[in-house]
Amino acid sequence: MQFSLLGPVRAWSDEIPVPLGPPQRRAVLALLLLASAQSVTTAALRERLWDKTAPSTAISAIQVHIHHLRKALASGGGSHIDTYPGFTKDDVSYALAVDPGALDTTRFESLLDASEAARNAGAPASAVERLDEALGLWRGHPAPELQSTPYVITMRRRLTDLRVDAVRRRASCLLDLGAVTRATADLLELNTEHPGNEKTVVLLSNALCRGGAHPRALRLLSTELDRWQHEYGLRPAELVRERERLANGGAMP
């Protein structure tokens, strides 16, 4: 059985979708999958689902969701949710173990590691293939069924940061391969989706210069420096150095 959290929560077996029920039930499944086979107490599930807005029926609702998830997973012939008793209802724990590679978040990070190994071995084309595969796993906002509790916010930020870094790494490899147009397009889109990242701006300015758009690269850096000065009263050293280098006709790295 396969599971996906890089977008709406899904499960399928032999390419057949497993019906998981309403959004909150899929949210419970997501939390069990994110625990990586470690047991999670009912109290922790309640906090991660609702934080301080948990209803009085939270524990019974979680128990009902676990019951129906067990039936759904069994229908797919796949994973099993284990229960570990506790002294109180809050202490009861649940764990869901899945096969390595059955969860897209795990595959995503494994592919990132493989791409880094390929690039370090001097194989940027292979690194791009791994990064294409990794980024292709994304289908939208991670597990949108989950409310934005502190736990979920941290999880989403971490995954999003990894995705942003993966796009940058792929663009860098593409530049190594001379695929300037594709790298520039990827970085322009990334800078629109996640503006203000110094590493993205510097790499984009490099890509623009390699494509013959030196004035545009200088304007990009100047605009970004002005924004930092206006919003934060700062001028990031990396952006300053890059602008000075390009303004002085520095060669592309």
UniProtKB/TrEMBL annotation:
Keyword check for Transcription: yes
Residues annotated to bind DNA: 1-98
Top-level taxonomic group: Bacteria
A single BP term in Gene Ontology: regulation of DNA-templated transcription
GO molecular function, one term: DNA binding
SMART domains: BTAD, Trans_reg_C
Gene3D superfamilies: Tetratricopeptide repeat domain, Winged helix-like DNA-binding domain superfamily/Winged helix DNA-binding domain
UniProt entry tagged with the keyword Membrane: no
Domain annotation OmpR/PhoB-type: ranges: 1-98
InterPro entries reported for this sequence: AfsR-DnrI-RedD_regulator, BTAD, OmpR/PhoB-type_DNA-bd, Sig_transdc_resp-reg_C-effctor, TPR-like_helical_dom_sf, WH-like_DNA-bd_sf
UniProt KW keywords: DNA-binding, Transcription, Transcription regulation, Two-component regulatory system
Family membership noted in the UniProt record: Belongs to the AfsR/DnrI/RedD regulatory family.
Protein name per Swiss-Prot or TrEMBL: OmpR/PhoB-type domain-containing protein
Organism: Streptomyces hainanensis
